[in-house]
Amino acid sequence: MFQYLMQKRKQNLWSFGPLSTVLYDITEIDSWAEDQSFLELIVSTKKREARQILDLTPVKELVSLKWNMYGRPYFCFLALFYILYMVCFTMCCVYRPLKPRTGNRTSSRDNTVYVQKLLQESYVAYEDELRLVGELITVIGAVVILVLEIPDILRVGAAKYFGQTILGGPFHIIVITYACMILVTMVMRLTSTTGEVVPMSFALVLGWCNVMYFARGFQMLGPFTIMIQKMIFGDLMRFCWLMAVVILGFASAFYIIFQTENPENLGQFYNYPMSLFTTFELFLTIIDGPANYDVDLPFMYSVVYFAFAIIATLLMLNLLIAMMGDTHWRVAHEQDELWRAQVVATTVMLERKLPRCLWPRSGICGREFGLGDRWYLRIEDRVDPNKHKMMRYTEAFKAQDRDNYDKGSEKLETNGDTLCKKGLSALSLSRNTSRTSSHRGWEILRRNT
Question: Which residues form a coiled coil (predicted)?
Answer without folding.
Answer: none
